[in-house]
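Journal club prep — side note

Before the paper discussion, L.F. wants everyone to see what a predicted structure for a comparable chain looks like in token form. Sequence:
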Amino acid sequence: MINDYKISLQGLANTILLISTILVVRNPQTIPTSGQNFFEYVLEFIRDVSKTQIGEEYGPWVPFIGTLFLFIFVSNWSGALLPWKIIKLPHGELAAPTNDINTIVALALLTSVAYFYAGISKKGLAYFGKYIQPTPILLPINILEDFTKPLSLSFRLFGNILADELVVVVLVSLVPLVVPIPVMFLGLFTSGIQALIFATLAAAYIGESMEGHH
């Protein structure tokens, strides 16, 4: 039951992103509206992040990096703006999508698949030669490293979002009027930073896979 409730909030985050995008891009204006300006700024920001981390071949990866960033950003903010955990349910609990371990593992797997695909599509079977560099003895460690990087990144995100939600819930329960507000604003800031860190490192892993550097 807990996962069902958390999936419903994940659907809410997806719905917010979908509706916002449709409203802005369905009728683009020559003189951009404020909403169109905002989305163009976000797109340019994501392009800059992707280009910085991946290099000149960043173009095909902008949609993936952008989707990661926007989904995590909206999910994080949904937990920072509303202390879902104080809403009592007969079974389970409400929480931000990024406070669900299933969502976190899915993000880690997507990141892993992305940089494996990037490396193999760029270098073919020669990509696997990196696992025996500088010596074949390091083969198990090099393989393990490729799987632990996105997992550690995801669990860092999970831990930060869980901690933010718990702090807000405790403060709302003890001092419900004024004290939680600064903490919630801080949570909004850190939630945005966490989304940026995840997207930036995902792009860096993809760039590293394509270049073959460790």
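L.F.'s comment for the group: The CA atoms of residues 30 and 36 lie 10 Å apart. Keep this in mind when we get to the figures.
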